[in-house]
């Protein structure tokens, strides 16, 4: 891929796009919002596959394999609630373990699916991979099929803002640090949506969710009840708020007119095993989001879910 095409692929695409979602759907509520939004936003997203990513977060999952399998089941549960069980055949189980080194892929149905599907695309017509969890599935696919670097664009919620201390000490990144390093250093067109310092603006509250979601339809009630249950369980305060992180990845794909966020090109920051970033001006560029417009994003999210 020439540099002109590479830079073009780091800008939001026009029109409808083919996507694969890679999600640790059982770990937190925000994955569910992202998956539901993508399935319902049929005028923009053509879903080619949904992959279950590993996570380990006791007591929700005591191992990365358990987290992946619970995520797989949660994806199928969502599709049933959405009356989209026709998508079940393109839901894939992912890595049972995190990547152990930077040269050996973790074998999984998801990694094979991503690697093989990438061959059907090109730099001029890329496949978009929406990464909202640990990235062992995606890194493994790139290791298995280096051509995937040419034919895909990865849009990842991972890491924190580079101006923060210990920027790589973020859940998706630190728990799968080896895969994160493979992805960041691979040369694939990569869009990074940092969590703390950028996407943490995407807060919502119980009263807002009650107004916009409760009673609208089956999936809205499911999301409302799950979010409220989580918020009241984890927060010591009655005035709790909840970050819906993962939806940001999908809104970057619709950001042609800069309605939803602002981004910039920077040399790829490398997550080190110290959980800090290292910086080198000679590294290849990535697109990094540095500001999100919370109200515009939630306006379209609630309208889409509530229809």
Describe the structure in your own words:
The chain is built from 12 helices and 12 strands. With 307 residues, the protein is α/β, with parallel strands linked by helices. Helix 4 packs across helix 5 and helix 5 crosses helix 8. It starts with a helix and ends with a helix.
**Share in β-strands:** 15-25%
Count of DSSP helices? 12
Uncertain residue segments? none
- CATH homologous group name: Ribonucleoside hydrolase-like
Which term fits the overall shape? Answer: globular
Report how far the terminal alpha carbons are from each other. Answer: 41 Å
What does the largest sheet look like?
A: 8 strands, mixed
CATH hierarchy: architecture = Alpha-Beta Complex
Please describe the structure with a list of short key phrases separated by commas or semicolons.
12 helices; alpha/beta; Inosine-uridine Nucleoside N-ribohydrolase, Chain A; 37% helix; 307 residues; globular; two-stranded antiparallel sheet; 8-stranded mixed beta sheet
Short description, anyone?
The chain is α/β, with parallel strands linked by helices. It is 37% helix and 19% strand.
SSE order and pairing:
Blueprint: H1 3-8, E1 17-23, H2 29-40, E2 45-52, H3 64-81, E3 91-92, H4 109-118, E4 127-132, H5 136-144, H6 148-151, E5 152-157, H7 171-174, H8 177-185, E6 190-193, E7 203-205, H9 206-212, H10 218-234, E8 241-243, H11 247-252, E9 261-267, E10 270-271, E11 277-278, E12 285-292, H12 294-306
Parallel strand pairs: 1-2, 1-4, 2-3, 4-5, 5-6, 6-12
Antiparallel strand pairs: 7-8, 9-12, 10-11
